[in-house]
């Protein structure tokens, strides 16, 4: 095949290519927001979120345990400690029991791949400040100095990438009880000692060591982005970091950023805009509806069931979002079998129906059935058929019979006997408009 350029196109290429390739970003939102999102992210559609840290040891309430115990005390948390731990017990004393003795990164990675997810995001540091890697800026409050004595971020990353999944890291900007953060806060965030002496050196180190594909930023809301030096960090990330061409980030970079600035939008936890957005977005949600971290007292009725998860995934992807589904591992390093069952269930469903989630093609449309059909005929009014239109049910070998409706659309004959259970079914229509 030969490609011909007109004179004007040649001129255009000559002028624009060097500019695009040499693009540098400046530390302001207009420039940062102009960066195109690396394409792997939109293609990925589905990721697994993992909340793991010292909060997995008390495993009570949620990963906000420390805050609800001693920051803004809730009676249930205070009582839990009073009943189960000796007087004077402090939160850091949980760390030695974060042992991860059964943590097998290969097993986790196998499960995540089997779920059909294309990326994994692990908490490298939640609001408690404990790092799940050997951060030199978090002395004795990291998973190498204490607890499992292991580089959890590194070990999971190696296993996940071996299976060609993308690897992202969650990082909380603020730390509830860090003395430098508290003194900056006292100054009305005029001082930036926490940012310059803790947060940024640690973030630069994290990116350089592990080369994450996602930086899932959080804990930004108490202070403006100028306090966090967010645009300066992002300009470095996009211009000069080892992941400048591949990394994606979200929108939690300061109290004024959510749903407005950064990379893709998270807006709020569990957010769904309910309509197509022009800007790429992600819904993060958790199988345990009460918590992101593992809870020993969770009950089955508090978990998302498989049909709900699949509907949520479909609804999110259909509106242009990515779906990031969270599981909380135990302090011992296991993923509770009930979470495993959900993830493998999503994977089995995606094996059959995944082409409708991962791809979109010219004259093919997919229709999802969220409720089990009870009539042998289904009417769709929107698709414009042609004589060569084919109608398939994914996972069913035969073509479905159909006939056009005079006023528009088509009637499809459904083999009712094959609809069992409560999952989502996908109709595939070829050669339609
Ligand atoms: C933080 O931002 C200010 C400008 O707003 C800049 O002068 C300073 O060098 C930045 N510091 C770091 C460590 O990025």
Automatic annotation (TrEMBL):
Its EC number is 3.2.1.51. Pfam families: Alpha_L_fucos. The keyword Ribonucleoprotein does not apply. One of its GO terms (biological process) is fucose metabolic process. GO terms for cellular component: lysosome. Residues 23-355 form the Glycoside hydrolase family 29 N-terminal domain. Keywords: Glycoprotein, Glycosidase, Hydrolase, Signal. Belongs to the glycosyl hydrolase 29 family. This is alpha-L-fucosidase. It comes from Albula glossodonta.
């Amino acid at each position: 095949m030969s490609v011909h350029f007109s004179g004007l196109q040649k001129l255009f290429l000559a002028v624009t290519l060097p500019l695009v390739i040499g693009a540098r970003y400046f530390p302001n939102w207009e420039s940062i927001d102009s960066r195109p999102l690396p394409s792997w992210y939109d293609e990925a559609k589905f990721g697994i979120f993992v909340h793991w840290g010292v909060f997995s040891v008390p495993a009570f309430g949620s990963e906000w345990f420390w805050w609800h115990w001693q920051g803004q005390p809730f009676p249930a948390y205070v009582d839990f400690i009073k009943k189960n731990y000796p007087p004077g017990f402090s939160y850091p004393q949980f760390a030695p029991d974060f042992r991860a003795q059964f943590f097998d990164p290969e097993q986790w990675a196998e499960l995540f791949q089997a779920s059909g997810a294309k990326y994994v995001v692990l908490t490298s540091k939640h609001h408690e400040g404990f790092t799940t890697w050997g951060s030199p800026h978090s002395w004795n409050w990291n998973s190498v100095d204490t607890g499992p004595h292991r580089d959890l971020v590194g070990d999971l990353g190696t296993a996940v990438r071996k299976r060609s999944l993308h690897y992202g890291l969650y990082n909380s900007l603020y730390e509830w009880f860090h003395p430098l953060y508290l003194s900056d806060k006292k100054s009305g965030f005029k001082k930036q000692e926490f940012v310059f002496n803790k947060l940024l050196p640690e973030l630069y180190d994290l990116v350089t060591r592990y080369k994450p594909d996602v930086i899932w930023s959080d804990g930004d809301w108490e202070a403006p982005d100028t306090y966090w030096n967010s645009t300066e960090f992002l300009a470095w990330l996009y211009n000069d970091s080892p992941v400048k061409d591949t990394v994606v980030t979200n929108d939690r970079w300061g109290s004024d950023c959510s749903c407005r600035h950064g990379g893709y939008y998270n807006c709020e936890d569990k957010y769904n805009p309910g309509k197509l957005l022009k800007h790429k977005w992600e819904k993060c949600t958790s199988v345990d509806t009460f918590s992101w971290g593992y809870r020993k007292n969770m009950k089955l009725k508090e978990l998302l069931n498989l049909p709900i998860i699949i509907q949520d995934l479909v609804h999110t992807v259909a509106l242009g979002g990515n779906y990031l589904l969270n599981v909380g591992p135990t302090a011992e390093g296991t993923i509770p079998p009930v979470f495993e069952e959900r993830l493998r269930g999503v994977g089995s469903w995606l094996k059959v129906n995944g082409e409708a989630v991962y791809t979109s093609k010219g004259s093919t449309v997919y229709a999802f059935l969220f409720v089990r059909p009870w009539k042998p005929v289904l009417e769709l009014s929107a698709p414009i058929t042609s004589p060569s239109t084919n109608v398939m049910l994914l996972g069913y070998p035969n073509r479905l019979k159909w006939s056009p409706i005079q006023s528009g659309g088509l009637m499809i004959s459904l083999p009712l006997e094959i609809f069992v259970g409560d999952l989502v079914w996908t109709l595939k229509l070829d050669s339609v408009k």
